[in-house]
């Protein structure tokens, strides 16, 4: 009797989601970010140790493609959720430091890592994508630590939220540009000036049009639809939100030639501007689907794609060098940006340290690089990058607690902020 792939998938998904929850819960009990436990669970399930997708119980069914497609849907809804959580009030409070520190903090990792990798013989595509991966920041990890320490409602806490927002937007734009250029360049990966101009025009044209639609039209239309009883019943508004997320994700790659996460992120930003009760209903319902089902598949799948068992020990110094660049570029880049805007040395150091973790955003960028074939011919580079993301996620809570040892020097602000 031929094996039923759908039945095998049911068991595989149950293992993935259970492992994700267990890994995340263990990490939180050890006062570490949940994402760290989920990544480690994925590594253990993957070819590094258990290689569970190839267990005999699955009767030889190839589940990697289906799990990968669900993981891609997971990253789309994850970036949609990040867009939903964008708080522009926080950006305006610390707008100057956010723009300057976020920009320098996003460009510094690229400026430090890309020339180094090209000197080591890497092509410009993997070198640039490595830099873009290191440019990303996971605000949720540092914000959660600051919240636990009771210092999120401080000057540094507000600056973190604004700086991370700018950083993430720049990272998404850079990812979109690299993906568009790589795709247009074909197997050779080279473009002449006219081809590059077309790619840039297509990308920025899409961003301008889609951005305008999500900013001005989407919130007004959804607010209007929410007043129609026939639409609002039976989870109508969350369903509309999902439809918009999927459409914008599709148009991003199909029309703009950029990553699907760009479209879903824009859709999330647009829906973040709806009325408070609508925004709350969308966020609550989408979060259940995202964090209860699809996002765990994404995190575990990232671990499944990293075979650390074959990671050569001779490449460990290279991974540690990338880790050094990852830490220094954020501390110095964001710190200098903060100092320029009037922060003192301690405040600048604190902001820089809070920006170290790459977390889920770094994973998103790295996984896109893997999916478009940038890391296809060098699994060592991807494994090293994965290790760096893992380690920055691990050390950030420790370093944040250390720089905030003297909390009296981080006075609380009267403004209210929400933990990410």
Automatic annotation (TrEMBL):
<dbReference type="Pfam" id="PF00999">
    <property type="entry name" value="Na_H_Exchanger"/>
</dbReference>
<keyword id="KW-0915">Sodium</keyword>
<feature type="domain" description="Cation/H+ exchanger transmembrane">
    <location>
        <begin position="20"/>
        <end position="404"/>
    </location>
</feature>
<feature type="transmembrane region" description="Helical">
    <location>
        <begin position="355"/>
        <end position="375"/>
    </location>
</feature>
<feature type="transmembrane region" description="Helical">
    <location>
        <begin position="96"/>
        <end position="117"/>
    </location>
</feature>
<feature type="transmembrane region" description="Helical">
    <location>
        <begin position="381"/>
        <end position="404"/>
    </location>
</feature>
<keyword id="KW-0739">Sodium transport</keyword>
<keyword id="KW-0813">Transport</keyword>
<keyword id="KW-0472">Membrane</keyword>
<dbReference type="GO" id="GO:1902600">
    <property type="term" value="P:proton transmembrane transport"/>
</dbReference>
<dbReference type="GO" id="GO:0015297">
    <property type="term" value="F:antiporter activity"/>
</dbReference>
<feature type="transmembrane region" description="Helical">
    <location>
        <begin position="286"/>
        <end position="306"/>
    </location>
</feature>
<dbReference type="InterPro" id="IPR006153">
    <property type="entry name" value="Cation/H_exchanger_TM"/>
</dbReference>
<dbReference type="InterPro" id="IPR038770">
    <property type="entry name" value="Na+/solute_symporter_sf"/>
</dbReference>
<keyword id="KW-0050">Antiport</keyword>
<protein>
    <submittedName>
        <fullName>Cation:proton antiporter</fullName>
    </submittedName>
</protein>
<dbReference type="GO" id="GO:0006814">
    <property type="term" value="P:sodium ion transport"/>
</dbReference>
<feature type="transmembrane region" description="Helical">
    <location>
        <begin position="230"/>
        <end position="249"/>
    </location>
</feature>
<feature type="transmembrane region" description="Helical">
    <location>
        <begin position="318"/>
        <end position="343"/>
    </location>
</feature>
<keyword id="KW-0812">Transmembrane</keyword>
<feature type="transmembrane region" description="Helical">
    <location>
        <begin position="196"/>
        <end position="218"/>
    </location>
</feature>
<keyword id="KW-0406">Ion transport</keyword>
<feature type="transmembrane region" description="Helical">
    <location>
        <begin position="159"/>
        <end position="184"/>
    </location>
</feature>
<keyword id="KW-1133">Transmembrane helix</keyword>
<feature type="transmembrane region" description="Helical">
    <location>
        <begin position="35"/>
        <end position="57"/>
    </location>
</feature>
<feature type="transmembrane region" description="Helical">
    <location>
        <begin position="63"/>
        <end position="84"/>
    </location>
</feature>
<feature type="transmembrane region" description="Helical">
    <location>
        <begin position="123"/>
        <end position="147"/>
    </location>
</feature>
<dbReference type="GO" id="GO:0016020">
    <property type="term" value="C:membrane"/>
</dbReference>
<comment type="similarity">
    <text>Belongs to the monovalent cation:proton antiporter 2 (CPA2) transporter (TC 2.A.37) family.</text>
</comment>
<feature type="transmembrane region" description="Helical">
    <location>
        <begin position="6"/>
        <end position="23"/>
    </location>
</feature>
<feature type="transmembrane region" description="Helical">
    <location>
        <begin position="255"/>
        <end position="274"/>
    </location>
</feature>
């Amino acid at each position: 009797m031929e094996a039923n792939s759908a039945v095998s998938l049911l068991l595989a998904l149950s293992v993935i989601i259970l492992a994700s929850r267990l890994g995340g819960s263990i990490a939180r009990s050890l006062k570490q970010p949940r994402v760290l436990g989920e990544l480690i669970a994925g590594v253990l399930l993957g070819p590094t140790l258990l290689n569970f997708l190839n267990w005999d119980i699955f009767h030889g069914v190839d589940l990697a493609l289906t799990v990968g497609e669900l993981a891609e849907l997971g990253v789309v809804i994850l970036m949609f959720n990040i867009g939903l959580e964008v708080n522009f009030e926080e950006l305006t409070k610390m707008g100057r430091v956010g723009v300057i520190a976020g920009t320098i903090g996003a460009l510094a990792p690229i400026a430090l890592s890309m020339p180094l990798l090209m000197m080591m013989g890497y092509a410009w595509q993997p070198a640039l994508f490595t830099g873009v991966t290191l440019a990303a920041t996971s605000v949720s990890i540092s914000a959660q630590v600051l919240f636990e320490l009771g210092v999120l409602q401080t000057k540094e806490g507000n600056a973190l939220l604004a700086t991370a927002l700018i950083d993430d937007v720049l990272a998404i734009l850079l990812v979109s540009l690299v993906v568009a250029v790589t795709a247009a360049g074909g197997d050779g990966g080279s473009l002449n000036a006219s081809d590059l101009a077309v790619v840039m025009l297509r990308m920025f044209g899409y961003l301008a049009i889609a951005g305008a639609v999500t900013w001005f039209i989407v919130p007004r239309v959804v607010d209007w639809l929410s007043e129609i009883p026939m639409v609002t019943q039976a989870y109508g508004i969350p369903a509309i939100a999902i439809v918009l997320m999927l459409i914008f994700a599709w148009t991003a790659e199909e029309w703009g030639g950029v990553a699907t996460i760009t479209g879903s992120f824009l859709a999330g930003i647009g829906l973040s501007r709806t009325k408070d009760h609508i925004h709350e209903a969308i966020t609550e319902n989408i979060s259940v689907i995202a964090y209860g089902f699809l996002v765990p598949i994404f995190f575990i799948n990232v671990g499944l794609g990293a075979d650390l068992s074959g990671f050569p020990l001779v490449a460990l110094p290279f991974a540690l060098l990338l880790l050094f660049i990852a830490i220094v570029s954020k501390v110095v880049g964001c710190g200098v940006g903060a100092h320029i805007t009037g922060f003192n040395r301690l405040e600048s150091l604190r902001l820089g340290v809070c920006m170290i973790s790459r977390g889920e955003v770094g994973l998103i960028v790295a996984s896109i690089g893997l999916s478009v074939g940038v890391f296809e011919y060098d699994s060592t580079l991807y494994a090293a990058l994965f290790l760096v993301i893992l380690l920055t996620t691990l050390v950030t809570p420790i370093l944040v607690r250390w720089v905030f040892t003297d909390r009296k020097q981080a006075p609380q602000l009267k403004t209210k902020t929400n933990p990410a």
